[in-house]
Amino acid sequence: MPFTEHLEELRKRLFKCIGSIVGLGLISYIFSEKLLDFLTKPKPNPDVPLQILKPTGGFLIHIKVAFFAGIVFSIPVLIYQFWQFVAPGLFTKERKYIFPIILFSVICFVTGALFAYFIVIPLGLKFLLGFETESMIANWTIDEYISFITMLMIVFGVVFELPMVALFLGKIGIINHKIMSKYRRYALFGALVFGAVLTPPDFITQLALAIPLWILYEVSIVLVRIFGKKPSENDI
Predict the structure, then answer these.
(1) Domain span at residue 129?
(2) What is this structure's pTM?
């Protein structure tokens, strides 16, 4: 496929992704009140209301929640469009793995987002709330709170895609379990750095991302070892 056709194909895929996010975001806006209730449930002090600091704050937070929901609900579409874009560059034998990978990629993302929602976020918020003193009381704004929650859910959703990415790369022969095992120590260091960069600056949430990432790396090694491309396999 010529380079110009690649660009045109990329444009079409991006347009479909953006259309999905916008469309599902508009639908989500109808249910933004319920989505807000869902996102505020992990708050450790439910009796203390979250603040709105500007006249347009209430409206904008509904827009933000709807946009976040549009992204999350579009994950199957985004993953599908990505794999459809790379499919022409794959061998026939490799293409048959696309749809199983799409399915399990969606499952991995949802698992990561729910892991953040039910485990990481409550622990992180309680830890941060523990720094309250008599002269320093936590008084969170709804905008900062929602940004904190949604950012962690998206980050964990993406991180939990690691086994699927590794499995695909192993299946087409780009990596193997020996290479992954060789760089295990570097992966551990990378997990710690990744956790420090992508999470809020508190030790609990950083470890809550770094530890699962390390576990996912080990799981990826096992998956690549079992299902990865064998030296005797020939491309068709």
Answers:
(1) 3-227
(2) 0.84
